[in-house]
Amino acid sequence: MEATLNLGLIFSEALAEVIATVTSIYLQCELSDEDTGFEDITGVMSLCSKKGGILFISAKESDIRVLCSCMTGIPEAEVTNEDIEDALCEFVNMTAGSTKLRLSDPDYMFSLSSPFVIKGKDITIATKSKTHVISSVLGNGEISVKLKFVC
């Protein structure tokens, strides 16, 4: 279980660093033993390896709009749905890539799928009983982003 928590921390730190680097917005991370659920829009990527899994990054559309605006320089009111989806896919891609670089264990040398977006809060992920779900919430009181890794 400790290895799973460390993996959760690595993913969460990678996401926080990615967001800070591309938006200059700093989010604090809280790991959670409980499933944090999903928000309006979720970026997804499969990470294939001996110890791979699926990465989910989820947030309210309004929060991704703010992050997208900061990342691209497009005024919030002019950010399109396509811009939001592209930004979220980029967060997923950069987080997975950063995590891959941080892990020295050959069992975690992921092959990364293309990221994609799912819209809607009523997403249910059904897993086998021995599957681990790592959840964290990153926030600063104004913006909140949820990370989930199912392995």
Describe it for me?
- This protein is α+β, with helices and mostly antiparallel strands and 151 residues long.
- It has one domain (2-150): 3-Layer(aba) Sandwich (Chemotaxis protein chec), CATH 3.40.1550.
- 37% of the residues lie in helices and 26% in strands.
- The chain contains three helices and seven strands; from the N terminus they run H-E-E-E-H-H-E-E-E-E.
- The chain has helices at 2-23, 61-72, 81-102, and strands at residues 28-32, 41-48, 53-59, 111-112, 116-119, 133-139, 144-150.
- Strands 1, 2, 3, 4, 5, 6 and 7 form a seven-stranded antiparallel sheet that branches.
- Strand 2 and strand 3 form a beta hairpin.
- The longest helix is centred in the N-terminal third of the chain and has 22 residues, at 2-23.
- It is globular.
- The N and C termini lie close together (12 Å).
- Total E-strand runs: 7
Helix percentage range = 25-40%
Alpha-carbon distance between the two ends: 12 Å
Question: What structural class should be given to the helix and strand makeup?
Answer: alpha+beta
CATH architecture: 3-Layer(aba) Sandwich
CATH superfamily: CheC-like
How many domains? Answer: 1
**What amount of the residues lies in strands?**
25-35%
Cα-atom radius of gyration: 15 Å
| Approximate shape | globular
At CATH level 3, the topology is Chemotaxis protein chec
Q: What is the class in the CATH system?
A: Alpha Beta
Overall pLDDT metric: 87
The main sheet comes to: 7 strands, antiparallel
Summarize the helix and strand pattern as letters. HEEEHHEEEE
